[in-house]
Amino acid sequence: MKNLKYILMVLAGGAMYGTMSSFVKLFYSRGYNAAELSFSQALLAAVFLGIFLLLSRKRGTRNLSKKQVIPLLITGGTIGLTNYLYYQSVSYISASLAIVILMQFTWFSLLLEWGIFRKKPGKPELLTVVFILIGTIMAGNLFYAEKISFSWKGITFVLCSSLTYAIYIVANSRVGKDVNWLPKSTMIMTGSALTIFIVNANTILAVSHFSYEFALIAVFLAVIGTSIPTALFAAGIPKIGAGVSSILMTVELPVAIICATIVLNERTSAVQIVGILIMLIAISAMNYYKSLITQKTD
C-alpha cells in the first residue's frame, strides 16, 4: 500500500500524544507541577525544532516574514495554554476522564467556525455532536460520578483546554498556509513556551526542582510529546490528507485510556469502553463527512 508508511506516521504521532496525560500525572508524584512541566516541554521542543531549522536552511527551507511571525506565535500560545490546562486538570481528575473531555474539541471547533466564519454545521455534524456527548457521558462514567475522581475544578480546566485546542486547530488551519512545516512548527512552539511562561512566570521562577531527573523528564516530554509527533504529522498529513489524518488521530483516545490503565492502574468499565467506541465512531464519521465536503468544494 503506497500510503501505508504515512498512515503509520500519523497513527504513531497520535499514539504518542495519547500517552502524555498518564506520564504527567505520574510525574506529579515526584513533586513537579503543570507549569514547569508544560513550560519545559514547549521550550525544549522549540529549541530542538529551531536547531533542526538552522541545519535545514541549506535545503531550501524558507524564512518567515514579519507578518507571518505574530499570527504563528499567537497560534502557538493557544496550544501552550491547551497543554498547561490539560496537565493541570489531571492533578484533579483521572487521566482517562481528562482525555474523554478533551475530545470535546471536535464540536467546539464546529461552533467556532460557525460563530466566527459563519460556516453553519450540517445535520450530519449536529447528529455527530449528539453521539459524541452520549459517548462522553458513558466513557467518563458520569452516571456514577461518586465512583470516579470527579472534581469541578479539574473538569473546568480540561473544558478550557478543549476550547483552546479547538481554537488552535481552527487557527492552525488558516495561519501560515504557505509556510514550510519546520519554521511554522518552530514559531508555534516558541509562542507556546512564551505564553506558558507569561501565565505562570511566578510559579516557574519560584520552583527549584531543576535537577538531572527533571532534565530527563523535560527531554522526554519535549521529544515524545511534541517534537517527534510534530515531525510525523508534518510528513504524513500532507500525503494522506487532513480528513483521513483527523480520523487516524482519534487513536489518541484509546491509547490514553490504555496507558492510564497500565501506568496509573485506572480501571475502565464495560460501559466506558462502549462510550469510547461511540465517541471514536462519531468523531471518525464527522471527519469523514467533512473530508467529503472539502473534496467536493475543491
From TrEMBL:
It comes from the Bacteria. SUPFAM superfamilies: Multidrug resistance efflux transporter EmrE. The chain crosses the membrane at residues 7-27, 39-57, 69-87, 93-114, 126-144, 150-171, 187-208, 214-235, 242-264, 270-289. GO terms for cellular component: membrane. InterPro entries: EamA_dom (IPR000620), EmrE-like (IPR037185). Pfam families: EamA (PF00892). Keywords: Membrane, Transmembrane, Transmembrane helix. Residues 5-138, 153-286 form the EamA domain. This is EamA family transporter.
